[in-house]
Write a structure and sequence with these properties.
This protein is α/β, with parallel strands linked by helices and 423 residues long. The chain has two domains: 297 residues, Alpha-Beta Barrel (TIM Barrel), CATH 3.20.20.70; 98 residues, no CATH class. It has 16 helices and ten strands. An eight-stranded mixed β-sheet has the order 1-2-3-4-5-6-7-8. The protein has a two-stranded parallel sheet with strand order 9-10. α3 links the parallel β4 and β5. α10 packs antiparallel against α16. It is globular and about 70 Å long. It starts with a helix and ends with a helix. About 4% of the residues have low confidence. The chain binds iron/sulfur cluster. The site of iron/sulfur cluster has 9 residues, from loops.
Length: 423
């Protein structure tokens, strides 16, 4: 590979790594004599999941890390003195094809800083996708970031070549977005999102009439919010996510714990490390909204605007609502069974299917994958002890489960330390 392209690849893969829409592999392990494989050649390669749950490796790269904007939270902001690089459309297309042929990747995840103006940049992103599809007949996965403020025409054209598109909301409220990214506003984000949504709806309509009508962003759109850079509560964040999920085209909202890359900027909080536990709790809450029929205002409300960092949001909801329990697994509706801590979507379905053949036992429930340590306080079933949330009390259950988790974690840490201790 051409040295200058390799240099650009290093710079632009590094610049792209803060986008969490796909998880970067991020390890550096060189091959050794007699060894097989390395992780260095996979620079910029990350993994993502397609609509049907398949894991694909993607070249995660920026077209350029030059940017005319100065967003406070971004490593690529114009006022930062970092190595800069720009791929030409041709270079990036050839790089993608070369990586694909070598079996390094199955697709491309392409974003960009903004040069000149949003449309100028978006046009180049579209050309990369278009050349890959039309000249090289590339059938791999393409995820394109839409540039905030890009025109409808360019977003519409991009949608014909990309499998998925995303526009990052970044900061949940308009007021704080203005504070940290003065050149952006929510309209510049929501408008391209609407163009994508409308394009998808139109394409579905067209394909109902003509099977050969072109597909438009078949894997839908996603977005990302930064968590912890501003004062928004989890209630603010989840309320926005919930509104976004009401759009049929929105498939995923990603939560990126704020990484203080520009610690000199006093508009930003002085965090020592990213709020990873909070990020994890937000993903769990997001999961509850998408698969467990929870509304955002049930998970967090005026009295508890932030997620409990010590316990998962489903358990937190159950402890706040003892009146909803115990759930009789033999009779309860699917929706109610889903609310039981320790019972997942698959186990809830298994319960419904199995109970038709007789009364469920504790050992059957365990075999279905139910976490009985949690669920036992919230259910009644055949021979289970009647020590439910009403007898035990929410605070006792909370302390018990936190203590068990801490003990399990300490044991894991101990085992790990034994593994890495020289005999
Ligand atoms: S527009 Fe994007 S690349 Fe440019 S500074 Fe803002 S977040 Fe960074």
């Amino acid at each position: 590979m051409d040295e200058s392209v390799l240099d650009k690849l290093k710079t632009l893969a590094e610049s792209a790594k803060y986008d969490v829409s796909c998880a970067s592999s991020g390890t550096v392990r060189k091959n050794q004599p007699g060894g097989l494989g390395n992780t260095v050649g996979g620079m910029g390669i990350c993994h993502s999941f397609t609509e049907d749950g398949r894991c694909v490796s993607l070249l995660k790269i920026m077209l350029t890390n030059y940017c005319i904007y100065d967003c406070a939270y971004c490593i690529n902001r114009r006022s930062n003195d970092i190595r800069r690089a720009t791929f030409s459309v041709k270079e990036l297309v050839e790089l993608t094809i070369e990586f694909y042929r070598r079996n390094y990747i199955e697709g491309l995840f392409l974003s960009s800083g903004i040069v000149r103006n949003p449309d100028y940049t978006m046009e180049r992103l579209v050309r990369v996708a278009k050349d890959l599809r039309t000249i090289h007949r590339f059938n791999g996965y393409i995820h394109l970031k839409s540039i905030p403020g890009a025109s409808r025409e360019l977003v519409n054209e991009a949608g014909l070549y990309a499998d998925r598109m995303s526009v990052n909301l970044e900061i949940p409220t308009e007021e704080n977005l203005k504070l940290l990214a003065p050149e952006k506003n929510h309209l510049s984000v929501f408008q391209p999102m609407s163009y994508i949504q409308q394009g998808m709806m139109q394409s579905l309509e067209d394909r109902r009439k003509f099977r050969s009508a072109p597909r438009f962003v078949p894997a839908g759109q996603s977005t990302q919010m930064i968590v912890g850079a501003t004062q928004e509560t989890d209630k603010d964040i989840l309320r926005i996510s919930s509104a976004l999920y009401r759009r049929p085209s929105m498939k995923r909202v990603y939560y990126s714990g704020f990484i203080p890359v520009n610690s000199y900027d006093n508009r930003l909080p002085a965090l020592k490390q990213p709020p990873l536990v909070r990020e994890n709790r937000l993903y769990q809450a997001d999961w509850l909204m998408r698969f467990y029929e929870f509304r955002a205002d049930e998970i967090v409300d005026e009295t508890s605007p932030n997620l409990d960092l010590e316990i998962d949001p489903k358990l937190a909801w159950a402890l706040r609502h003892p009146e909803a329990f115990p759930v009789d697994l033999q009779k309860a509706d699917y929706s109610l069974i889903l609310r039981v801590p320790g019972i997942g979507v698959r186990s809830a379905k298994l319960i419904i299917a199995s109970r038709r053949f007789g009364r469920l036992t504790a050992s059957q429930l365990k075999k279905m994958g139910i976490v009985m340590k949690k669920a036992q306080y919230f259910i009644t079933c055949n021979e289970l002890p009647m020590h439910t949330i009403h007898e035990a009390g929410p605070e006792y259950i909370r302390q018990q489960l936190i203590a068990r988790k801490t003990k399990a974690k300490n044991e894991d840490d101990r085992q790990l330390s034994l593994l890495f201790t020289d005999p």
